[in-house]
Amino acid sequence: MEVTRMSSTAGQTYLDQFPAEAKVIKAAFWSSFMALAIGGLLGLVQALHRTDVLRFIDSADYYTVLTAHGVLLAITFTIFFLVGIFTWAVTTSLDRGVVDIRFTWAWYIMMVVGTILVGVSILGGVVDAIPTNADVLFTFYAPLQAHPAFYVGLVLFVVGSWLAGADWFRTWWAWRKENPDERIPLPTFMALTTTLFWYLCTLGVALSILVFLLPWSLGIVDSVNPLLTRTLFWYFGHAVVYFWLMPAYMMWYIMLPKLSGGKLFSDPLARVVFVLFLLLSTPVGIHHQYLDPGIAEGYKFIAMTNTMFLLLPSLLTAFTVVASMEHGARQRGGTGYLGWLKALPWRDPVFTGMALAGLMFAAAGFSGMINAGMNINYLVHNTWWVVGHFHLTVGTAVALTFMAAAYWFIPQVTGKELWSRRLALGQVLVWFVGMTFMSNAMHRSGLFGMPRRTAEPQYQGFDFEPAVGTVGEINAQVALGAVLLTVALAMFLLNMVMTSFNDDSDSLPANTYAGTLSGPEDSPAVLDNLKLWTAIAVVLVIVGYTLPLASIVDSGGLFGPDIGGFQLAIETDPALVLESVREVMP
Amino acid sequence: MASATEQRETDQVHEIGHEEYDPIGTAILIGIYFLILVLLWLFMYFVEFLGNGPTVVGALLTVVGLA
Fold first, then answer.
1. Contacting residues of B for A365, CB less than 8 Å apart
2. Cα-Cα-Cα-Cα dihedral sign, residues A471, A473, A479, A485
3. What domains, with CATH codes, occur in chain A?
4. Which residues of chain A make contact with B40, given a CB cutoff of 8 A?
5. Do the strands A3-4 and A513-514 form a parallel or antiparallel pair, or are they unpaired?
6. Which of A66, A84, A427, A486 has its CA at 20 to 30 Å from residue A218's CA atom?
7. Which of A391, A402, A437, A492 is catalytic?
8. Are residues B3 and A337, on separate chains, in Cβ contact within 8 Å?
9. Chain A nearest C-alpha distance from B1 (Å)
10. Is B10 within a domain?
11. pLDDT at residue B49, rounded to an integer
């Protein structure tokens, strides 16, 4: 099999090639795993509490746990893993180290400090000794207000990720000077286009925090416009899901073909897909706000149209990645219309984890289409359906791909052999089965209106009426799924910890990624014109957001119609809040 | 893990180039996926429109200011 090898370093692991960078990547991966461990365990607490299988926390504390679960998994786990993978991708594909390793450590440490600030300020919601509170969930919607440390921590984390992006660009510019006529290698191209839309989309959340929420939390301004800060959040909030997803896509494009024994079907198609994500990730955020009053339906319709266009790169990916796997399977002797599937390396946990993650993502494609359609979205918007959807996307397509990738990457950056391949294979299967139970039940419960973000989804004088099955059966599936997912998480972490205690190995596979059947020479040079695509992306954002934002500011004011803050656990007795919530519920 | 990649290299029976490769299996799988999407889309009609009153469609007159 011909795979792309680094000319001067064939046969070497990443640790052999780039020992200094390998240390930073290892640190980023471990930061990611720690967030996964804490956030995942809190997920089990919530699932058992909501389904009333085991309630050992106060229902008011459920929201602290939910905030920590969302922030630690959706932001910390994913983005720490991303910066590790992208640093690997840029250095490996350019065959050179970063320009200044001290700068690399600086952004990593900045992200860690940000995470600690955010984590501690959330923890204050359940630990009396910490005088903070941030029960604002992952979306931190005003008028829910967090302690200033929460917002400052988020800013530090995001700025750290900006500097990481600057690091990748600097490395690429340095390479460009030495190789002025070469095409950008595909993994670097993927990292750079993703970084560009990350810069574009995080401007919204930076504006929301620095101009509105942080001054409001500090008492510098008295009021905010909740619809404006929500809209700025979702300006960032949809692109962030592609930010998590792009490293998973990168793994599917450049690792899965190699693991299957073949080559990437088309480098040009892969470039087109990443350009489309750069263009379309950001001007679609309003599709998370179909139910928000105050945004005219016309703007929502434009966001829906943009969103439907976003299906295109995902469907292109489905074709390219599966065709690459089929190429590998046929090279390994697979035959027949579907018989080639048997020739794939299903005993390899790295392959199987990524393939199952891709399969789950195909299912998420359907629930995503439902979410994207304006009329049907009204039916499922605030229900558990949406939670089921994103546990298939970020919770499996991304998380399972990352865990499977870790089985390849951790040996690469530590020089130690994976502790147990068998345990790893079992782990990806248990995760898949657990998520099948949990996510399916969540989707179904959403169809009969069971709400999300609720500690006790049971009401006096009202019963949910499932079309098929019972509420008890759905709760049992969610609880069972959550337990299986936690078992899979423990299996993963055990394997990672034991691997780090393993002896150094000199028989690890070389640091390579997949070659291509149709290479960059077949793709038009304009695809590498990052300035052009960035300019078009900016224009699309201006077209998609100027009028809605102007309309929101016009009707609600820049700082809102006297909306004061409301900190759930500090200023109000949680018992009273729950009591008042029960009173207004029928 | 050590031999994972190398082992696969020896597993290769023959090399298939760009011109001779025809991803027919992929076309079948994508076709099945589209079929599932269409069936689920039809199912959605029953969930949304027959189980509940129409939402955006019914509001057309309100949107254009006629009602």
1. 37
2. negative
3. 22-584 (1.20.210.10)
4. 366
5. antiparallel
6. A66
7. A391
8. no
9. 6
10. no
11. 66
